[in-house]
Amino acid sequence: MENDNIKKLEELLNDGVLTQEEFESKKQKY
Asked: Fewer C-beta neighbours within 10 Å, C or N terminus of the chain?
């Protein structure tokens, strides 16, 4: 399940919705 969440975060990162910093901080939660 956590892989799906990380994939979604990566998509947001790639789309420019998240900054690298936001991505890393959110990824820590999974």
From this structure: N
The residue whose two tokens read 């990162």 is 13
The pair of three-digit structure tokens given for residue 15, joined into one six-digit string:
């789309």
Q: How many domains does the chain have?
A: 1
Q: Which domain holds residue 20?
A: 1-30
Task: Read off the pTM.
Answer: 0.72
Distance CA 30, CA 16 (A): 21
Per residue in 1-30, pLDDT tens? Answer: 689 999 999 999 999 999 999 999 999 987
